[in-house]
Amino acid sequence: MRIHHLNCGSHCPLGGALFDGASRGIFAHICTHCLLIETADSLVLVDTGYGLQDVRPTAGRRLAFTWPLLLNTQLREGDTAIRQVEALGYSPRDVRHIVLTHLDFDHAGGIADFPEARVHVLASEKAAAERTRRGFITRQRYRPAMWDCVRDWRIYAAGGDDWFGFEAVRRLDGLSEDIVMVPLRGHTLGHAGVAIRTAEGWLLDAGDSFMSHGELDVRPHCPVGLRAYQAIMTSDRQARRANLERLRALQQDTSAGVTIFAAHDDISLAALRGAAGSQ
């Protein structure tokens, strides 16, 4: 198994370090960290970022104007998952599975670029995205046109198995038990982490369960801009706080051998790319 760490969408909001904790200029840089996993018989994407229909000016616009405007989203075709898959020498048809942390616009936009892929998601997330689209935030975050084309959904109830004390779904249809969905309700009602067992230990893509690596520190910290965005987008604050505390405890348990990252943390993306390149 080989894992590629992709940035499938860059947000550059006004505010610099107030958002990313590092930028010296007036604009921040916030990635959309997706994974491309090479298994023995296929490719697996964990989240898809933005898709071709989002970045092409001549395409029908599926994105709401609100978040791309506020986040100053840089929509570039070269950043889409499909173009990065092709740059690695693969065909989009080789992507047979897409495992989603959630269905927000910046995580699900590329689904349509892989029409032959089987799409895995928690049942509570699909229900929240399709049947309970009440309220301004919900209508802005969930854009059903992004996944209307899916022919092969695989929907899972939360729980049933155990992963380091978390509920887990270990038997994803067509995938080995080296890829596990870990329900992490909070950011959305059906949000999940995706854990991958590697030769070096477990890697947990925690999606938007938190925004900055500093939130897992013994003394947690997070740039104020990201804290504000997370507060706006959180669907269940109590569940998010509880899961964040559990993730923090897991991160600090060095015997577990689990590496945890968030989807919008540039520092984690750079570190994991560096680690992958050194192997």
From TrEMBL:
<keyword id="KW-0862">Zinc</keyword>
<dbReference type="InterPro" id="IPR001279">
    <property type="entry name" value="Metallo-B-lactamas"/>
</dbReference>
<comment type="similarity">
    <text>Belongs to the metallo-beta-lactamase superfamily.</text>
</comment>
<keyword id="KW-0479">Metal-binding</keyword>
<dbReference type="InterPro" id="IPR036866">
    <property type="entry name" value="RibonucZ/Hydroxyglut_hydro"/>
</dbReference>
<dbReference type="Pfam" id="PF00753">
    <property type="entry name" value="Lactamase_B"/>
</dbReference>
<dbReference type="GO" id="GO:0016787">
    <property type="term" value="F:hydrolase activity"/>
</dbReference>
<keyword id="KW-0378">Hydrolase</keyword>
<feature type="domain" description="Metallo-beta-lactamase">
    <location>
        <begin position="31"/>
        <end position="264"/>
    </location>
</feature>
<protein>
    <submittedName>
        <fullName>MBL fold metallo-hydrolase</fullName>
    </submittedName>
</protein>
<dbReference type="GO" id="GO:0046872">
    <property type="term" value="F:metal ion binding"/>
</dbReference>
<dbReference type="InterPro" id="IPR051013">
    <property type="entry name" value="MBL_superfamily_lactonases"/>
</dbReference>
